Amino acid sequence: MKAVNVTVGQSVTPTETLFELVDPDHLHVELTVFEKDVPLLRPGQRIRFTLPNDSSAERTASVYLIGRTVDAQQRTVRVHGHLDRENDPSLLPGMFVRAVVETSARRVPALPDKAVVDYEGKQYVFRLESSSAKQQVFRMLEVRRGEQADGYSEVLLPGAAAGARYATDGAYSLLSKLKNAAEEE
């Protein structure tokens, strides 16, 4: 039961709503999408979403229905999605979610945002050249950053070697050590 609009002894007319019932057995996710993004949407696309109080657990759904009318004030369209896992006990009717609709599914080389450093107007990554018990040797390579999403950056690596390993965290620390060592020489 979501709402009770009546109290004991109250007079009601036949047209008044007394109760609002909600069946939590078949929940859906409903998104509000800006009208400029609607042409990118198709039924069946994957929706990834998180709850405001639990952004660590990502949930999924798929686009089922795309609204046919634009809200005049907000310039948005409603998008209805079916949950992949409907019986999630942490989902309740009326909750807000943060959602991303996957509009394309191309595979690209990507690294965490922390692995790409901006230095003197260019972007760089650090490739692991050699590793021993005492030290690791990295080489600084210029790259072009492509699209960014969910903490990852597409990296366009010229002549990328298959199976190469890259520093995924602390790239600014490596840059700092490299530049300090160059200044000491």
UniProtKB/TrEMBL annotation:
Xref: InterPro entries: Beta-barrel_RND_2, MFP_Cation_Efflux
Keyword Oxidoreductase: no
Biological-process GO terms, alphabetical: copper ion export; plasma membrane copper ion transport
GO cellular component labels: cell envelope
Domain CusB-like beta-barrel: 29-103
Pfam family, one: Beta-barrel_RND_2
Keywords from the named record: Transport
The name this protein goes by in its record: Efflux RND transporter periplasmic adaptor subunit
Species this chain originates from: Hymenobacter cellulosilyticus
Lineage: Bacteria, Pseudomonadati, Bacteroidota, Cytophagia, Cytophagales
